[in-house]
Amino acid sequence: MRKYLFGTGLFGVILGGVGLLRAVRGNAPFTWRVALAFVSWAISLTLAIGTIIDIGRAERGHVVDPDSPIAGQEERLLQKRLVRKRRLYGQ
Question: Which residues cross the membrane (predicted)?
Fold first, then answer.
């Protein structure tokens, strides 16, 4: 779980959201540009969470959608997980 929370994608989205909230906090009016920035941030957050879900599925041996950034790497991720599990439990 730690590798997901501190991954660069999610970390970048969170920092982007903090920066966006700081920019809006002042007395600036809420314009269409600010609304578009929030929509863009929400899309980025959704994509980062979707990638985390896809990686978790691939590590458990499930097939991910072909439009996923890790499509085709499921077997490699599963083997990596199995090696870690063997090392951890001494099997």
Answer: 33-53
Q: What is the DSSP letter of 28?
A: -
- Pick the closest to residue 34 from 42, 45, 50 (CA basis): 42
18, two tokens: 């903090």
pTM as predicted: 0.70
Residue 37: how many CB atoms within 10 A of its CB?
Answer: 16
Q: What is the domain extent for residue 51?
A: 2-89
Distance CA 45, CA 13 (A): 6
Rounded CA gap, 58 and 72, in Å? 9
| CB-count burial class (<10 Å; 0-12, 13-18, 19+) for 20 | middle
Query: Tens digit of pLDDT for each residue in 19-53?
Result: 888 888 877 788 899 899 999 999 999 988 888 88
pLDDT tens column, 57-67: 777 777 777 77
Q: What is the tally of structural domains in the chain?
A: 1
